Amino acid sequence: MTAPAGRPGIDVPDPRGRTGLDREGRDLTGNARVRVVDVEVLACDWSVLRRTTFDYRHGDGHWSREQRETYDRGDGATILLYDLHRRTVLLTRQFRLPAYVNGHPDGMLLETAAGLLDGDDPREAIRREAVEETGRTVHEVEHVFDAFMSPGSVTERLSFFAAPYDGSAPGAETAGVAEEGEDITVVELPFTEALALIRTGGIADAKTIMLLQWAALDGPFGLSSREAR
User: Fold this and answer.
1) Helix 206-217 vs helix 191-200: angle between axes, to the nearest 10 degrees?
2) Calpha distance 86→5 (Å, rounded)
3) H-helix or E-strand spanning residue 31
4) Angle (CA) 189 182 18, round 5°
5) How many angstroms separate the CA atoms of 131 and 129, rounded?
6) Would you say the pTM of this structure is higher than 0.85?
7) Which of 44, 48, 51, 195 could disulfide-pair with 72, CB 3.0 to 4.6 Å?
8) Do 93 and 208 meet the contact criterion of CB atoms below 8 Å apart?
């Protein structure tokens, strides 16, 4: 059977059934110093790699033509689960190939639970991910902030959340969705030990560092929280 003619993700569906991926970012009008000229799809499978050509007006008034590649994997959410009474946090450990390729000793990173939104509201998505990655069900979650994690090349905006968990209740030791190749170990740590691991490099994941430092400054383990109690 002959494959249909056309460009996957543009004229014909890509592996995820999407078309028109070259239209993303063409009609931006929020910055008068940027004029988008062209958007090319270089690759599309689970994520989308685009090359955008645009004209940019510099601070001195002159225009230059620029090209940038953007990697679009969708937006995501992450959550710090904490037990205030026991002063612990619940993290995950899983293999991350990109970190392993780029010099991490074994690619096994300690992280807060996280995942892509997949079309869901961030609050709904992070409740789903908390169950899938830690085995814990959370209801009321606190939105902490949103952040672009690698704005020079990756479009992803990550929503950060926090929620308490009951550490005295039985919990899972392993978790993850097997069909997605996930093999996750659930790790409970004293909060002070988690902070110390940032200093030694034992925790090297950016979102996890950000949430732990938030928790120490303005969050449940911070001075303002202790004063409020």
Assistant:
1) 130
2) 61
3) none
4) 130
5) 5
6) yes
7) 48
8) no
Our measurement of the distance from residue 17's CA atom to the centroid of its chain's CA atoms, rounded to an integer in Å, reads 23
Give the per-residue SS3 of 76-143.
EEEEEEEECCCCEEEEEEEECHHHHHCCCCCCEEEECEEEECCCCCHHHHHHHHHHHHHCCCCCCCEE
Distance CA 186, CA 171 (A): 9
CB 222 within 8 A of CB 215: yes
Cα 78 to Cα 167, 172, 182: the distances in Å are 19, 19, 16
Q: How far apart are CA 33 and CA 58, in angstroms?
A: 8
Interstrand relation of 76-83 and 88-95 (parallel, antiparallel or unpaired): antiparallel
Contact 52, 38 (CB under 8 A): yes
pLDDT tens-digit readout, 74-131? 999 999 999 999 999 999 999 999 999 999 999 999 999 999 999 899 999 999 999 9
Calculate the alpha carbon distances from 112 to 45, 90, 185, 188 in Å.
26, 7, 12, 11
Question: What are 220's two structure tokens?
Answer: 């449940």
Which letter, b or e, does each residue of 173-183 get, where b requires 16 or more Cβ atoms within 10 Å of its Cβ?
A: eebbeeeeebe
